[in-house]
Amino acid sequence: METTEQSSRAQVIIKYGVIFGLLSVASQLVFYIMGYGIQRNWATYLVTFIVFAGSLFLGIKALREDVLGGHMSYGQGVGAGVLMSIIAGIISSIYFLVLTSFIDTGLIQKMIDQIAEEMMKKNVNEEAIEQNLYYTRKFMTPVWMFVFGTVFYIFWGLIATLILSIFLQKEDPDKLYQNLDK
Rounded mean pLDDT of 53-82? Predict the structure, then answer.
C-alpha cells in the first residue's frame, strides 16, 4: 500500500506541476503577444500571482484530498508545493529558452536596453551603467536565464507553500490520539 500511495502522490505532484508550468507558459505567451514581453505592469503581476498561488493551492489541496485521505501535515504540503514549483519552473524556463533562442532572439538585448534606459533615467553615471551592463550581459544568456528562472520558481514556490500549507494542513486526529497513548 505504501508504494501505491507514493506513486499516487508522485502522480498528483507531477500532474499539478505540469498544469502549473503550462498555465505559467500560457500567461507569459499572452503577455508576450500583448507586447508586455519586457515591460510589466500591476495587471501582469496580478495574473502571475493568481496563476502561481492558485496552481499551488489546487495541487496541494488535491494531494490532501485525493491521496492522503483528507489529512496532510504542514511538511507534506510544503514538500509537495516545492516539487510542483520545480516542475513548473523547468517547464517555464524551457519556454523562455525556446523564446529567446529561436522565436525572438533579440528579446534579451531588448531587456538589456531597457535596463540601460532605466539607469539613465535615474541619472546613473555612464561608467556605472557600462559596468552594470557588462555583468548583466554575462548573466542574461538563455542558459543563465533558464537557471535563474528555475531558481525563481523554487524560491517563490517555497515562500508560497510555506504560507498555503498553514491553511491547507489538516492533521489526522487518529494519529494525534495514538501519540497521546504512548
Answer: 96
Among 179, 11, 21, 43, which Cα is nearest to 87's? 21
| Beta carbons of 145 and 96 less than 8 angstroms apart | yes
Q: With beta carbons less than 8 A apart as the criterion, state whether 82 and 163 touch.
A: no
Instruction: Report the alpha-carbon distance of residue 126 to residue 77 in Å, rounded.
Output: 49
Q: Which residue carries 534606459 as its cell?
A: 117
95 touches 27 (CB < 8 A)? no
Residue range 108-155, pLDDT digits in tens: 888 889 889 989 999 889 999 999 999 989 988 888 999 999 999 999
CA dist 167 and 182 (Å) reads 28
**Cα–Cα distance between 159 and 82 in angstroms, integer?**
9
Model confidence at 29: pLDDT above 80: yes
Chain centroid, CA 120 distance in Å:
31
Cα–Cα distance between 96 and 102 in angstroms, integer? 10
pTM of the model: 0.88
